[in-house]
Amino acid sequence: MVQQHEVTLVRGILLEIDGECLRFHGSVLDLACADGYELYEQHVRGWLDNHPVLRKAEVRFSGRWVHCILWLDRPIEIRSDRRRELWDAVIRAVQRALPSDPEAPSLLAMTRPIGSTNSKTGRQVELLRCGEPVTEVEVLNLVEDLSRRGFATAMQILLGSTTVSPCPVCLADDSSLHGSAPRYGTSTPDVTSRGWCYHCGKVPLASLISKVVKGRGEDERDDDAHAGGAACAEPPRDEYDESDIPFSTTADCQGGA
User: Fold this and answer.
1) 11, 18, 184, 237: which is deepest, by most CB within 10 A?
2) How many structural domains does the chain have?
3) What angle do CA 156, 55, 202 make, to 5 degrees?
């Protein structure tokens, strides 16, 4: 079992979109989904297309739900604890850009190879959308965007606009939700992390996210992104059912990755 402090290379960022973590039949997600195929077509495809960086993600049917992968054009080398902490925070911020599983790991995230079988469902992992590599600068710019325009960016991704009517929080007939509070021209987090509705008043980002994401019990966790946390490209066959693909590796695993 590899620990997070042993990670020395980051090759991509995994965003696990799990239907069991989503709040269907609500004010934002009105269509429930039976599996990852429906989830991608009805919701995830649109979310990705609403942001230029996320649009480059590769998408896989995980055998159950959806895995979105931002592959880096060049692996990020982790040479210090400080840089490891930085990229842990960066990955978690990117994962929160979509309604991803809040319990999913960051540096130790893994996905199954295309063509392999999800042992829990018996279904095959398939490619739903080809991606293209992203640069380190693009990833950091996305995080900067989330930091400076958090509510507006989340609205753009989830709803396709920074202004929507009716407001998904209060649902009043003549209401509308705006991605930033009026009369503010600032990057102060307590301002950029909230929107504005003339019925609701100030709307925290958490209120918007709660309309899409819900928690789940530990016993409901999808196993394909939490299966062990090992970070070698080719784990021993007697320990794992499938040769899961890691997104970060330790120094002694980097030879052929």
Assistant:
1) 18
2) 1
3) 15
Residues 6+ apart with CB under 8 A from 163: 176, 177, 178, 179
Q: Under a CB-based contact definition with an 8 Å cutoff, are residues 147 and 189 in contact?
A: yes
Residue owning tokens 């709040």:
23
First-last CA distance in the chain: 18
CA separation for the pair 8, 77 (Å, rounded) = 6
As given in the structure block, the two tokens for residue 24 are 């269907």
Structure tokens given for 155: 């609205």
d(CA 255, CA 253): 6
Q: Is residue 155 part of a domain?
A: no
**Distance from C-alpha of 59 to C-alpha of 66, rounded to nearest angstrom:** 7
Asked whether residue 39 is domain-assigned, the answer is: yes
Full domain range(s) for residue 29: 4-148+213-253
Q: Which two tokens stand for residue 156?
A: 């753009």
Contact predicate 64/222, CB 8 Å: yes
Place of tokens 């900067």: 144
pLDDT in tens, the chain (257 residues): 578 888 889 999 999 999 999 999 888 998 889 999 999 999 999 999 999 999 999 999 999 999 999 999 999 999 999 999 999 999 999 999 999 998 889 999 889 999 999 999 999 999 999 999 999 999 999 999 888 888 999 999 999 999 999 999 999 999 999 997 544 455 555 556 789 999 989 999 889 998 999 866 533 444 444 433 333 222 333 333 333 333 333 333 333 33
CA-closest candidate to residue 252, choices 228, 238, 234: 234
